[in-house]
Amino acid sequence: MVIWRWRLYHTAEMTTPRESRPRLGLALGGGAALGWAHVGVLQALHAEGMRPELLAGTSAGAIVAALYAFGLAPDDIVPRVGELGWRRMSHFSMNSLGILTNEGLEKVVEEAIGPAQLEDAELPVAIVAADIHTGERIVLRSGPVGLAVRASACIPGIFVPVEQGEHLLVDGGVVENVPVRAVRELGLPQVTVAVALMGRTDFRPVRTLVGVLANAFEIAVDAAQDRELEDADVVIRPDLTEFRRWDTDARDEIIEAGRRAGQEAVPEIAKLLDG
Q1: Of 252, 177, 274, 267, which is closest to residue 221 (Cα–Cα)?
Q2: What is the pLDDT of residues 90-117, one digit of tens each?
Q3: Is 59 a catalytic residue?
Q4: Are 151 and 145 in contact (CB under 8 A)?
Q5: What is the pTM of this model?
Q6: What is the 3-state secondary structure (H, E, C) of 125-187?
Q7: Which position among 90, 152, 171, 233 bears the catalytic label?
């Protein structure tokens, strides 16, 4: 499903030829394994010659946003990253702040693009996390990419929070699961496209502590997501109703769902970019 809205930009933001052309900004939301849908959306945009110029990502969206910003084409992301199952990304922790550590995700990102710094990306990119000490929304635009992505995907209560300076960082979904505001902060004018993966979850009975924590987190994120999407020009919601956040074996089907949704959104995005 695609929701699109027309927006007018302040003339003060359009004073030069460069700034007179709206850029395509992409806000990629969190959703664990459902994040593969972002690759499909990018494939659909590329097929029509559309190239995002500004990116922001939260949690699973942070992975795809970071890899794309460092030059990986959509078709290259899957083979470069490979499988993102629990065993590869995490292991049990003896830390009192979390059951698991997701250090493996940091290594996956570094294997794909090297030990890069966010400020060196080919495209402006922002990664959203939350400071569990203060509840503050933290937008990361500098520092190690792998660490930023790991922090943004650090589900509180399940994964050990990531220390970065004075901050103790957890999943950005706590404060901004679809980072529309973060991508708009990268610069105007832009056509802001949000890709929302959550909100249609079929909750099932839980039987473990991890299940309780994961469902609680997802319920809270769902409740706030609609407000986050209000400032987007186009909202893409891939039909992911048959999948769950932890369906790591359904990668190809999830990518295809994202591609279909992205393809459906192309005409509306084109109108806004041309307008």
Answers
A1: 177
A2: 667 778 788 888 898 999 999 999 999 9
A3: yes
A4: no
A5: 0.85
A6: EEEEEEECCCCCEEEECCCEHHHHHHHHCCCEEEECCEEECCEEEEECHHHHCCCHHHHHCCC
A7: 171
